[in-house]
Amino acid sequence: MRYAYYPGCSLTESAREFDVSTRLVMERLGCELVEIPDWTCCGASAAEPVSRLMNYALPARNLAIAEQDMDGMDVLAPCAACYLNLLKVGREAVGDRHLHGRINEVLAASGLVYRGKARVRHLLDVLKNDVGAKIVEQKVTDSLKGMKIAPYYGCQILRPYPVFDDPGKPVSMEPFIEAMGGEVHRWDMGNRCCGASLMVGHPEVAIRSVAEILNAARGADAIATVCPLCQMNLEAYQAKAARAGGRRVPVLYLTQLMGLAMGLDDKAMRLSDNLTMTPAVRRGIAARAWAEPAPGQGAETVEASG
Amino acid sequence: MSGAVRETWSPAPESDRMILKELRETVGACMQCGTCTASCPNWHAMDVTPRAMWRMIQFGMLDRILESRTFWMCSSCYLCTLRCPRGLKLTSAMAALKRLAGVANGPAARRNGSFYAAFMDDVEAHGRVQETSMMQRYFIRRRDPAAPLAFLPLGVRMLSKGKVHLPGRGMGGVLKPLFAKARELEGTP
Ligand code: SF4
Ligand code: SF4
């Protein structure tokens, strides 16, 4: 299986570990990722509040290149915001002749045409529907047995377009957690908003959401994410959330956990890039500490991270 | 209704009129059931509920709308859009309100809209967002000396993880012609 890979800006900077782990894990699962040449920013959630047209034209530029040069491959985006923006152009512009025309007027400024043919997929969609948990299970060499993982989906991979899972009660990560030998932490915060970019201008509002999410992860050894913004908000503000009554929980990308379970080491999965990865947590993962029931509760004994 | 809008909002340049038209079309069919308000995770930080905001748009109460902080508190989580029984694109409406306030560009827009504007400036300059230079642009736009300080601890942690680097690895100005064309078509300065 080959995909036109759209990493998006975060995966080249603050979320490198997501990019690296995605590429390695997908390769092991027999998927070839071909990066879209000269891809540019999709506008994240910042384009729409500034320019309606650029909100469509930015993702359309990348899809236009994929359509033109990549031979009908599905476009794979690991980031939730990138995925939604890319998906949204197809859903909203195709069939709307006026909007589609204006998008192409903008793209014509660099000699491109968006035809609306490229199919856009989120990483989790590809894992669920093209790969399947069975294949993952076959590749597991270092089972995460006993590790309790809270699957966190965030908002934009299923809203407003529920393509591959139920946005009210998403479950698509669960078979993968079980395939790795882990245990699913059942909670109802998996699709709760992390505050997204409100964290920059109005941290007091976003921290409240983050604290509630972290608290609901009580009893889990880790939270698994599939979005760099979720990851950032849940990880980087744990000290502040703790002051607002939140708990500290390690947060890892699903692909990092998959890599570990498939025998890739913590260097390859760049665990040290995670902001919640204290030496104690890393030792715990290396020793599979959660496998034996510890006195006290797993995540509660995590040391404070500065 | 459009007469009332023009009275309370003048002068209305081309770009505003386009946004207003879009807004009224987006929420025109709202039946005031309140599902959107009940769904919003950020309701506690809003001064006008989302449901009431759509009413104010229907009535063209633009001065009241622009005074509100409600739309700045929207984190684009799309829960209201998913649940609205009328299928209205409410998250887009919140974004359109941010654009409208951005055109008016008062102190509230500077405080609340700086991040979006800085982000887009950086995209225009580099093609891909460079987090360090984007945050610098944000601090300059915010004009609040305390803003950088609040981010210092995180900045230091990110730096120590090697996660931020100096700008310059982007795509250059490949998007500049696209931005220019969009401005021309949208009638924005
Ligand atoms: S959910 Fe839809 S119909 Fe109900 S109040 Fe909100 S916008 Fe109106
Ligand atoms: S999209 Fe915005 S207004 Fe709608 S529920 Fe989410 S935060 Fe609230």
TrEMBL record, chain A:
Pfam families: CCG
Record keyword Ribonucleoprotein present: no
Domain of life: Bacteria
GO terms assigned for molecular function: oxidoreductase activity
Keywords: Oxidoreductase
Domain Cysteine-rich intervals: 3-86, 151-234
Protein name: Disulfide reductase
Species the sequence originates in: Pseudodesulfovibrio indicus
Automatic annotation (TrEMBL), chain B:
GO cellular component: plasma membrane
Top-level lineage group: Bacteria
Organism: Pseudodesulfovibrio indicus
Domain (4Fe-4S ferredoxin-type): residue spans on this chain: 21-51
GO terms assigned for molecular function: iron-sulfur cluster binding; metal ion binding
One Pfam family hit: Fer4_9
InterPro entries on file: 4Fe4S_Fe-S-bd, 4Fe4S_Fe_S_CS, HdrC_iron-sulfur_subunit, Helical_ferredxn
Positions of transmembrane segments: none
UniProt keyword terms in alphabetical order: Iron, Iron-sulfur, Metal-binding
Name assigned to this protein: Heterodisulfide reductase
